[in-house]
Hints:
single chain, 195 residues, alpha/beta, 8 helices, 6 strands, elongated
Amino acid sequence: DHRDLHSFPTRRSSDLARKEILFVGIDWQRKGGPTLLKAFEIVRKAFPDAKLTIVGCDPKVNQPGCKVVGKVSLNEVGHYYRGASVFCLPTTSEPLGIVFLEAMAYSLPVVATNIEAIPEFIHEGKNGYLVEPGDYKALASAIIELVRSPARCRDFGSYGHELYSKRYTWNGVGDRMFSSIHQCLDRTKPVFSEH
């Protein structure tokens, strides 16, 4: 990937205090967009200045605080990650979810659904919160917990960035592969007798 995702290992609490929630996805329905809109209504009652930016698709949304960006180039997506306080994608089906790793690379806390591979990299209470698909009340509560605490956003973002760096970069993957290969080679070394 040509984007420089390693340049955002830490975020200032002041940046994370802007109450900017980011959704990045092409398939609005499958990615849980309607559930997020219901949750965002609740978030706005608690924080009237909260904002939701929708990138990658252009659903018809007429809700206060929502901005629909639509499709943008890969280079432009980084601008939205950098401007966000919380990344939220309450998807109903997601074999992996590269956008979650991108959010972690940009040191964002994540709110996602507790399905498929997502719990492998979103660790509950460490770099984000996991909710059940369609549970907009739990989704709203998780977002509110993060919007309420820029310090928690920073801590979650730092944990996520570290996890991303160790496990999901080329260097991180290479280090893990080298370690595994080295362990296998050590176990298969022939033992020579000195006779």
